[in-house]
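pinging the channel bc i need a second pair of eyes. not urgent but kinda urgent?? the chain im working w is below, pasted from the shared doc
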Amino acid sequence: ISSATSVIHSLMKGEAVDHSSTENSSSTSGAYLGINGWDVSSENSMVYGMPQGVYVTKSIDNQPASKAGIKKGDIITSADGTAVTSMEELKNIISKHKSGDKIKIIIATRDSGYDKKSTVEVTLADASQAPKEDTEDNSGNRSNGSSGSQQQGNDSNQGSASEFFSKIFGG
């Protein structure tokens, strides 16, 4: 568990993880989706008329999610056949995979007013290859979609998820 904690902290900082010194060493460092996102809680879902899931605040250019067509404003509602209601759940699903695995992700698109859902196939990348400038800003309820653990708390620049959605959608 102590080695898992150090790996989680390294991934949250966007650092490469060296598995050579850990038990059950692997040649890959875990899967990576390439998004930042906020949880859409049941409360926010009702208030703003959007499905529960993970609201994509950033789909990092040339990374797995953006290559599959996932865009800022989309909401991930399912991954690998499992309903997603939080970033933590999404990361748990991704953590069961390795780089190169293909998973199906269901998204509700902002362009359709969240009325239309689409299925996209994403080929996950190696988390150690994630661009550092896009993975360091993951405080609050946001994350880069790698298989590390979610950091809880609020970013003073973004505030709470409710404040975030209020700014975007009014209310």
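so The CA atoms of residues 18 and 29 lie 8 Å apart. and The radius of gyration is 15 Å. — does that match what u expected or am i reading it wrong
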